[in-house]
Amino acid sequence: MEKSAILLGSEAIAHGVKLCRPQVISAYPITPQTHIIETLSEMVDRGELESQYIKVESEMSAIAAVLGSVSAGSRSFTASSSQGLAMMHELLHWYAGARLPLVLVNANRALGAPWNIWSDQSDSFSQRDTGWLQIYCETSQEALDTIIMAYKASEQLMLPIMVMIDGFILSHTMERLMIPAQEMVDDFLPPYKAPYQLDPGNPLTFGGAAQPDLFYELKKAYSATMQEALGLIDQVQTEFARKFERHYSAVMHCQEGDKNSDTAIICCGAMTGTARVAVENLSQTEIAVDLFKLRLLRPFPTTDLAAALKGKKRVIVLNRACSYGVGGTLSQEIRTALYHLPDRPIINDVMISLGGKEVFPETISDIIKNREQLSETECNWL
Amino acid sequence: MNNLKYISAIRNGDFTGLPIAGSSTAVNMTGNWKFFRPLLKPKKAPCFEACPLHIGISDYIKEFAAGNHLAALEILRLSNPMPAITGRVCPNFCQSACNRTDFDEALQIGNLERALGDFGLDHPHPGNDKDENKTAAIIGSGPAGLAAAIFLTRAGVKVTIFEQNTAPGGLLRYGIPAYRLPRPILDQEIDNIIESYKIELKCNHRIESAQLKKLTAEYDVLIAAPGLSRSSIPAQWPDIPKIKGALDLLAAISRNETIPGQNFVIIGGGNAALDTARSLKRLGKTVKIIYRRTRAEMPAYPDEIMEALEEGLQIQEEVVVAKVAGTGDALNLDLHHSRKDGKQITAGDFLETITCDFLIAATGQESGTDFKDYSPELLPAGDFAHGAASVAEALASGRKAAESALEKFGLLADYPVSNQTTEESAPITCTQLHLNYYVKKPAGKTPQLEAAARNKNFSEVNLSLTLDQLADEAERCFHCGSCTTCGICWFFCPDVAIAINHDSHEAESPILFDYDHCKGCGQCAEVCPRGVIEMEEDL
Amino acid sequence: MTKNHFTNDTNWQITNAEFMESGHMACPGCGASLSMRHVLKVLGPETIVVMPACCWAIIAGGQPTTALATPLLHTPFAVAAAAASGVRQALTAQKKENIQVLAWAGDGGTFDIGLQGISGAAERHEDMIYICYDNEAYMNTGIQQSSATPHGAWTTTTPGGKDFKYAKKDILAIIKAHDPGYLASATIAYPEDFYAKIEKAKAARGFRFIHLLAACPSGWKIDSQNSLEVTRLAVESGVFPLLELNDSGNIEKTYEPENPISVKDYLAAQGRFRKVSEKETELWQSEIDRNSSRNTS
Questions:
Q1: Model confidence over A245-282: pLDDT tens digits?
Q2: How many CA atoms lie within 13 Å of C120's alpha carbon, on the beta-carbon side?
Q3: Which residues of chain C are within 8 Å of residue B33 when distances are taken between CB atoms?
Q4: Which of A182, A160, A167 is CA-nearest to residue A16?
Q5: Which domain holds residue C137?
Q6: I need a surface site. Which of B269, B436, C52, C168 has the fewest CB within 10 A?
Q7: What is the 3-state secondary structure (H, E, C) of C218-268?
Q8: Residue B385: its pLDDT value, please?
Q9: Buried b / exposed e across B418-430, counting CB within 10 Å, b at 16+?
Q10: Residues B147, B173 within the same domain
Q11: C76 to chain B, minimum CA–CA distance in Å?
């Protein structure tokens, strides 16, 4: 049976990972990801989780080790953050190109310099083009559930999935949540059966050189699989909802405003929680806005988003990552997705927080209240 | 949802569009890259070249090493029909030329030949049922005469041998002592030959020069191999019974005649001198050899000299007998130091006078016949043709006479020869071999009877080794210039482009180069221990 | 099985089975391809090969072909040891202990960019064989110097010859400091020694490291047919001694040249050392003499 528990976000993630029974775990410590791997270490140490834990000497080796273990046919897990994820960058590309499944949890954190360990989505947003699927979570429960769903989707697609939580905001805060029963997870997520793997009985070579034309074809197929992934993720989330009664989708309509509301705000991750309060508070002042959270950044749910935001005159995008010289990274994504609509809304690009700068409900409600003053072309810094 | 084309493909085991490879690179014709290609180019071995008989030594040793002793014997007999004999008495020109000498120690080819020869004593020659309706008469049943007879009968010629002595063998029987060539071996080898080849042997049948014309008329060809059966006695020595020729004495010993006298002085440094001296010693006589030059300059085979010294034989070097005097019971010999006068040796200062019962001359040989102006149809062979030489050379000479006759008969074409004989190139030298990947191994030397035991009788000095005991020795052969399928080229090919054809027949190459994938790097040629692989420009 | 001719040991047989295919992309006379061929002959089909960027990443052939009849995982440059660790741990999880994991990397991927990962894997005593085929420069990218390039050698980034201040990194000493399960240097130019060491590595457990010298005709400026011979001279001159970690924890020579040649003869056989001066040659010779006396004491 599912059981209720009060857990740190990191612990919740560790429980989610444990339920998925990875055979190999490889990770290198970095704040604020450490509690995840510490908890997993304890689980392995206590014999609760039967897994080979490889204590590597760097993030590059962490991702390389799971490249090896998954190539050899074992479900695996790794986690990182910030500088560590950046150090993996070369391997992130390689891993995706290798067409292997994996779930990587990234605790979002700012990249130096200067040193800063607080929440910031620049680390994962700057890995958008590596070919990984990216899912951003609002709560620890969502993160736990998403890990289970991610393994299923990843192994169907033979593509790696990065699951994001906001460093500290989720990783280091307690939350009451439900831990699904192992039997139900086992039923939902059967053991990984690799369609291809390093096997002396059927010797194959992985990742050998490809000439330009073949390379192009491989990437074309990759891109097509990414498109198929949108549908498959939907399917997995539906299946999960049927079994565990918690509903997730690529774009989630979190807070309905007035029927005639023509303004929407959109964000990713834990900030959604704060935004919920802000929107709720505002509704009492008769300012109606719709709140959306974007769970799936890659592949980008263009159709779903366009459908969700259809008819809106204004979309305020709250960014925790910046593409310097352009503006909020999420804003670029939203803009691109809505460009084809006949009645394009105004996009207000708001750089609400970087490096853990605190976001209060008032921060968000003030932005909404003063929306008319927001620039429609430039990035709006507070 | 029904359009998950790539995902279903993967699940169905279709890896199109995935970075996965599984088919062999052998589809790449990397052989296109090469500028040079390896070729198998067998070369002549130095042993083959040095052997007067041009025995296919490498070939028979290959079979020997593989344990195919009968096949080895057949190859050996092709060129040398009496290996049990030559394996004992040949000075082994082959061994002196052996490239292995520069690596560790020469291959003991003589021992291998001897062991195979002894094996052959129980395995008669295949003989020949061909009849080409030609006849040959051969004078003398020494090695040259017998060789001529064998090679002629192999080609279908009917042969009659005329031998003046009571038994065949010539110098083999009447010159070479039994401790070097035991008589049962000699008898068996010759018997096998006579019987296998159906040779008509007429012993006690001396041919005088007056009979030559008649023989020439009766037979299609006449070969004269009467040998050099007498030792020449220096002209300045008195003609007295106490002065004898070495060969006469050896013949008498062979016939088990009683040899009078006790003290013998032998003059000379050749094999005849040593054979006589060592034989006399075995009869309990006191013997001394006097030689005008140094021991190192003695023409006798070095092994013979060494064995003689082991047996306690006295050799007085650089001394000449200037004067022989005395009658009755003793001879007085005036010994002088040798004096070198250019190439000549003359008597120098007086040394001493010694006495002896008999003085034996072993300074040269001469024919015991009076064949002088024989007809052109008479083919000379053996020592009679070319002067005193080894048994192997006599055999070669007999064979050459036979070949001349066969050529005349138009029968040379079918004549079986050992491999390599047609090659006209120089034999391969040690520097052309690549011995980095060869392992040093001690030579399989023949054990010898202890020196103390030798002087008591005529037992064979060199003891035999069995075929099995010599298996390792056979393995030592480099097989210079000839592929043994050792696989070293195969081992070192970085392109997996060499296959060894272990079961190759003569028509097929023992090494198969995969030119589709050979990039022509040339390492196979560089490592071939036998220098058989050469690189040739690939056009 | 083919009977060998390299030893008096008649029991040593070399399998005829090949696990490296012809038609691979190695240059003519490549020491690295020959070495791979024989390493796999010893390790056999129950082997998984992990390979970072190096000449072999190309030699192995382009898709859809492969030069290996064993499974092969290509990885980025720095991570062969880490990826091999992952493969090993997956096999452990799947209880496939009989399968050997071979990390196969060049000198760049070992001495330079991959060193950290190797140190990690060695420290964890990961059960794998790590073989560095050392051709003494970044040959695949066009002969740039690495920390395995010997001083004096020409490369495209040491056009005047690598400065004599910078000796070749002592990789065996580095790995030895990690208490490896097996440690040796070898070259296919000495087949008996080579086979014995690969066999020992195969039989041992834990992190096993073998440093192979592998000639590169184009990078060393030698003719392809001299590839083996020059490698042999490296050993005969003492430039590349054949070593092994013995049971008492010392690195000792497994082969002592009967008639050692001078370093001068080794250098003269290669175009890449053309600019080495007489004084530098003497210096090198004295280094070798000093090292060899240290090894024997």
A1: 999 999 999 877 666 689 999 999 999 999 999 999 99
A2: 27
A3: 28
A4: A182
A5: 2-296
A6: B436
A7: HHHCCCHHHHHHHHHHHHHCCCCCCEEECCCCCEEECCCCCCCCCHHHHHH
A8: 87
A9: bbbeeeeeebbeb
A10: yes
A11: 14
pLDDT at B285: 94
Least confident of A345-349, A356-360, B453-457, C256-260: B453-457
Residue A293: both structure tokens together: 């959270």
Adjacent-strand bridge partners of B480: none
Residue among C147, C149, C131 nearest C220 (CA): C149
3-state SS class at B441: coil
- Which of A98, A205, A225 has the CB atom closest to B7's CB atom? A225
Strand spans (E) along chain C: 2-3, 13-14, 47-51, 65-66, 72-74, 100-106, 128-134, 182-186, 207-213, 243-245, 251-253
Q: pLDDT of B49-90, one tens digit each? A: 999 999 999 999 999 999 999 999 999 999 999 999 999 999
pLDDT: which is higher, C293 or B171: B171
Task: Tell me the residue type at B36.
Answer: F
Provide the number of structural domains found in chain C: 1
Of B362-366, B420-424, C138-142, the range with the lowest mean pLDDT is: B420-424
Contact B289, B277 (CB under 8 A): yes
Distances in whole angstroms, Cα of residue B485 to Cα of each of A35, B478, B490, C1, C190: 66, 12, 9, 13, 20
Please tell me which of the candidates C23, C27, C232 has its beta carbon nearest to residue B27: C23
Mutate to test the interface with C, among A49, A57, A75, A192 (most CBs of C within 10 A): A57
Profile chain C (297 residues) by mean pLDDT over runs of 10 residues: 64 89 97 98 98 97 96 98 98 97 98 98 98 98 97 96 94 97 97 96 98 98 97 97 95 94 97 96 94 56
The encoded tokens of residue A72 equal: 């050899």
The verdict on residue B274 lying in a domain is yes
Q: Topology of domain A251-381, per CATH? A: Rossmann fold (3.40.50)
pLDDT tens string A277-333: 999 999 888 888 999 999 999 999 999 999 999 889 999 999 999 999 999 999 999
> What stretch of H or E contains B230?
strand B230-231
Helices (H), B155-260: 171-174, 183-196, 212-218, 246-254
Q: CA nearest B199: which of B166, B155, B158? A: B158
DSSP-derived secondary structure letter, C94: T
CATH of the domain at B199: 3.50.50.60
Whether residue A14 is preceded by a cis peptide bond, meaning omega within 30 degrees of 0, is no
pTM of the model: 0.90
Q: What is the span of the domain harbouring residue B352?
A: 238-363
Cβ contact C70–A203 (<8 Å): yes
User: How far A219 CA sits from the closest chain B CA (Å)?
Assistant: 8
What mean pLDDT is predicted for residues B471-490?
Answer: 91
What is the rounded distance in angstroms from the CA atom of residue C230 to the CA atom of residue C266?
7
Cβ–Cβ contact A97 with C under 8 A: no
pLDDT given at position C36: 98
Its CATH class, for the domain covering A3-191+208-244, is alpha beta
Domains A3-191+208-244 and A251-381 alike in fold: yes
Residue-by-residue DSSP string for A8-45: EHHHHHHHHHHHT--SEEEE---TTTHHHHHHHHHHHH
* Domain boundary assignment for chain A: 3-191+208-244, 251-381
Q: Are B162 and B226 in contact (CB under 8 A)?
A: no
Is there a single domain that holds both residue B284 and residue B179?
A: no
Q: Does residue A91 sit at the C interface (CB-CB below 8 Å)? A: yes
Could you tell me if B22 and B523 are in contact, meaning their C-beta atoms sit under 8 angstroms apart? no
pLDDT recorded at residue B508: 79
Bridge partners of C128, per DSSP, are C207
Give ipTM to 2 decimals.
0.96
Neighbours of C76 (CB within 10 A): 23
The mean-pLDDT minimum among A96-100, A157-161, B455-459 falls in: B455-459
